[in-house]
């Protein structure tokens, strides 16, 4: 007979490892959906301000989107994380890092991280 050890706490509560990971995925999905909704609202507000204050239209927006999309060399409606040069040593490192992986210098803050 199997003993009820701390490793078997999921079994004790009636959850299989699959069920446990599924609820974590569902929770993460809910969090991501909330973030997307919030970013959509922010983008809508910014676009309406830009339209009003600078007399821009949809063609202006689509042209800028295409320009930004092409920056990573792929016209795929996605923004890929690109490497940037460290302000201290000049070596390329990920935009997602707070510090350079080579010299540990603080990296510039990215206001629009891709992840």
Order of strands, main sheet, comes to 1-2
**Number of DSSP strands?**
2
Report strand %: 5-15%
Q: Quote the average pLDDT.
A: 82
Main sheet specs: 2 strands, antiparallel
End-to-end C-alpha gap? 46 Å
Overview of this protein structure:
With 115 residues, the protein is mostly helical. It has three helices and two strands; from the N terminus they run H-H-H-E-E. The longest helix is centred in the N-terminal third of the chain and has 38 residues, at 17-54.
Task: Give me a quick take on this structure.
The chain is mainly α and 115 residues long.
Provide the descriptors you would attach to this structure in a database record.
3 helices; flat; single chain; 115 residues; mainly alpha; two-stranded antiparallel sheet
List the helices and strands and how they pair.
Blueprint (H helix, E strand, L loop, with lengths): L8 H4 L4 H38 L3 H13 L12 E3 L6 E3 L21
Antiparallel strand pairs: 1-2
């Amino acid at each position: 007979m199997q003993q009820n050890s701390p490793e078997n706490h999921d079994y004790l509560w009636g959850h299989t490892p699959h069920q446990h990971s599924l609820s974590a995925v569902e929770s993460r999905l809910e969090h991501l959906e909330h973030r997307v909704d919030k970013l959509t609202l922010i983008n809508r507000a910014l676009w309406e301000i830009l339209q009003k204050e600078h007399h821009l239209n949809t063609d202006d927006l689509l042209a800028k989107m295409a320009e930004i999309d092409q920056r990573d060399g792929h016209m795929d409606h996605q923004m890929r994380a690109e490497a940037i040069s460290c302000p201290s040593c000049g070596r390329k490192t990920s935009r997602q890092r707070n510090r350079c992986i080579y010299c540990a210098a603080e990296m510039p803050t990215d206001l629009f991280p891709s992840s």
